[in-house]
Amino acid sequence: MKRVLLIVLPLLTLLFVAPPFLLGTPLWQLGNAVALATGLGAKLACSGRFISGFDDQRILDDLASYAGVNRRLSLDFTADRVRVSLFGLASTSATYRPGLGCTLDTGDTTRLDTLSVPSTATSPGMPLDVDIAHPAQQAAEALLRADNAEGLQTRALLVLQGNRLIAESYAPGFTADSRLLGWSMGKSLMAIVIGRMQALELIPGNVPGPLFPEWAHDDRARISLTQLLQMTSGLDWQEDYVPGSDSTRMLFHAPSASAVALASPPEGVPGERFYYSSGTTNLLARFAAERLGGPQAQLDFLHREVLQPLGMHGAVLEVDPAGIVVASSFVYATARDWVRLGRLLLDQGLVNGRPFLPPGWVVRATRPNSSRNDPRYGYQLWLNGGGAELRWPGLPRNAFAMLGNRGQAVLVLPDQALVLVRLGWTAGDYPLAQKMGDLLSRL
After folding, report:
1. What is the per-residue pLDDT across 339-388, written as a single tens digit (0 to 9) for each?
2. I need a labelling partner for 293 at 20 to 30 A (CA). Which of 146, 163, 256, 278 fits?
3. Bond preceding residue 295 cis, omega within 30 of 0
């Protein structure tokens, strides 16, 4: 009887204390809901503290933007770890490793202690000429102040014109050295990694299937690398961020993020339907790791062949317990790192005038996909044009962007030779088209 009370009383407490968290959550999903809260909490708290340098208050404020109950999470930090619990019902921990970032302590993580991260600071990489005496600086500062007066929590706003950084503005508490989470902007970086592998002839431009041995004997053998890049694979996947979904299991529970997506059964004909899937990006990361020779070889390649040449010295690409980069979601970088990534695409894949990506790769990457429902998505890049309507009315038709949760954006405007970077933590939708349109009108 005493054991039953120890289980039931905390559940009753949760039902009364945290109703906003449970609205719409079936009782049988309560375990998954609590596990999601502590898994999300441990992952973001660990990275927020050890990568971004946030204090407990900022971490809890950021977590509470997802669900009010997250403000009641208990954070217990040590020198390199955090343990997070909710009303004593469950706890989840995550560990920080220099260069690798934070990983949930799920399954066997001992292999992570054998990985080493090459330094990216031996070369300046892609240079940036800073000219914040430009009139654009005042426009960016005004927009950032307006955003934050509206509660949109914009943390960094940058404008690059050609190779000149003409505006760079930060909210109080943030600087050019702040490493901030890009969320799904990491997807675009993963596509560029694939492009770099093709440029170095480590994989062919048209990779024959099956992409994975596990797909050799069913319809998944027909899925092409391009279809993974364009998210038209036809795989069955649940992107909804609710307790027990494919995405939440992948990011906050599974010992291998890519293994969750690898097990997805075929659902439709490859190439016919666009469906946004974070699992697809982690399949690309798994594909790259397998072709390169495993987790250590992948890390070596990422740092020496991608981050270092681009000058992205502040970037941290976090790995899952299996050692594979969680490219769909967990890339931390400075605002200047992100603007360099946009500049690579603006410059058609050249770095310092030299080919970094295959000839024509950026053109192909920003070409509409073959789906019937929404062709406005390229190689892990959101496209403004290509469909019946513009994605961002008021912006040029050939604009394209890297986008991430909470309003992260690297917007590329080829005709104006501009890259606009916005990093922040907006709880709802950030009005990207309106805000960037306002900024453009002031330039």
Report:
1. 999 999 999 999 999 999 999 999 999 999 999 999 999 999 999 999 99
2. 278
3. no
Domain boundaries, the chain: 2-97, 160-442
**φ and ψ at residue 240, rounded to 5 degrees:** -55, 135
23 has pLDDT over 80 = no
Architecture, CATH, for domain 160-442: 3-Layer(aba) Sandwich (3.40)
357 C-beta neighbours (distance < 10 Å), count: 23
pTM of the model: 0.93
**For 275-417, where are the E strands, in sequence order?**
316-317, 331-333, 350-351, 354-355, 382-383, 400-404, 408-413
The tokens for 267 are 């659902």
Spatial distance between the Cα atoms of 111 and 106, rounded to a whole number of angstroms: 12
* CA distance linking residue 253 with residue 230, whole number of Å: 26
301 Rama sector, left if φ>0, alpha if ψ -120 to 50, beta otherwise = alpha
- The pLDDT > 90 percentage for the chain reads 84
pLDDT at 25: 53
